[in-house]
Each structure stands twice: as structure tokens, then as C-alpha cells.
Predict the structure.
Amino acid sequence: MNNIEEIRKKLKPILNLANVASEKIQPLIRVSQELSQSLRQSLKRPEINLLLSFFKSEIFEHKLLIDLFPDGFDKQILENNWNMIQISLKKRWPDSLLNVDRKERLEQIYKAQDAGAYIAVCRAIYPEIECLLREEILFKIDGFLTNFHSESEQKRKSFYDNKFSEIKKSLYKVFGVSDDTPFNEVDIFTASFLYELEKSFISYDPKNNLCENSIKEIKNNRHFHCHGWSQKAEFIDALNALVILDITMCSIDKLNNQQLQTKP
């Protein structure tokens, strides 16, 4: 009996400490439960589901797809609804950029997508984007053409290294951002487009062919497709290219309108 009492006395401080610890832990448990509940509720929000749709489908963020599929989508849904998507994309073509030749090229690109010739779409669309950026932004910068023709052949060829910074500055004006704009002040669609567009014009290193993960990263790269490094493409790769083309065209049209409004 004395041994039991002695054990109780020795255990009492430990039990008291355990009670105190339990009291301190309870608020943490409640906070954890509240956070868990909040997270579950957040994941049910429509915009979260849509972001997950973009991520899982490996498609660039485009507000048009949110309008067309407000409840979310996957790769198969996008492919099954290509006709509806292409009608909506064609409605967005800016008249100011549609000379006869460009309209014909765009129609050919869309016909290739209809036919499932996705590699042909990718190999045609990035040069078209480069053509737009060159003719509608670079060549309209005061003094650019004079400097362009006086540069060395190597510099004229290097579209990305020497020219993309000017393009980026012009497109930043459209979206009201700059290099100094805090990331949290740029909406996800703007940030995604500017990132993917710039990434599309970074020179492709053939060594990346050795790494499957790298291939996934550069499937939407002009250099990768135009120089024949790409061996195949899927529906989603071609749709991504069409999305970048669409936002580029609409952005240039908006930029041109802004410049017209500011002219005296």
C-alpha cells in the first residue's frame, strides 16, 4: 500500500504537467480544426476548382475558358468541345490585325487543328506570333527600323536576346504593370500570359531532349518547334499555342487603341 502511495506521489507532478500541456494544446487543436475546415471550404470555391482545371489540363489560363466552362473542365472536355472553343476564339480576332494574308494563314492553322494536325499547328503558330510582335510592336517603335537595319546580321537574327525586352515593355502598358509591380498586384491571367509568352521565345537547348521533364516545359517554345526538334504534339499543345496567339492579338489591338487615344 505504501508503495502505491509513493508511486502516486511521484506520478502526480507528471500528471499535473500532462494536464497543463493538454490545456495548452486544446487551443492549438481548435485552430487546426478551424484551418482544416476553412481549407475544405476554400477548395469548394468555384475559382479554386477552375484553377485546378487549368493545372490538371495543362492549359494556359484564359478567361474565355472560364466563361465557356464555369464548372470546370479537363483535357477530354476541351477536346470534345473544340468546335465551341474555336468559334469563340475566332470571334475575338481583331479586325485591325486581319489583313487578307494573315486571315488566310489563321484559317489554315485552324483547319489543321480541326484535322488533328497538332504538330503542324505548333510549327505554324509561333512564327505567326513572332510576325505579329515584330510588325505591330517593334517596327512601330520610333527609330527601331533604322537601328535594326544597321545592326549586325547576328543581332538581327537574335529576336529574343535583343528585342523581347522592348516587346515586354509595350505589353506591360496594356496590362498596367511594370518590372516593379508587386506580384500580388498582377492578376493570374496577366502573369501567366506574360510568363508563357516570354518563355515561348527563349532559345531552346537541344540537350533538353535528354530530359522528359524539360520537354514538358518547352512544348510551347518557338525555337523548339520551328527548328524541327519537336517530333509530335497533342491537342492541348496546339490549343495552348492558339491561346497564346489569341491573347497576343487582343493585347496588340488594345495597345494600338491606347496609342491612338493618346495621340494629339
User: Anything to note?
Assistant: The chain has a mean pLDDT of 76. The CA atoms of residues 138 and 166 lie 7 Å apart. The first helix runs from residue 2 to 43. DSSP finds 14 helices and no strands in the chain.
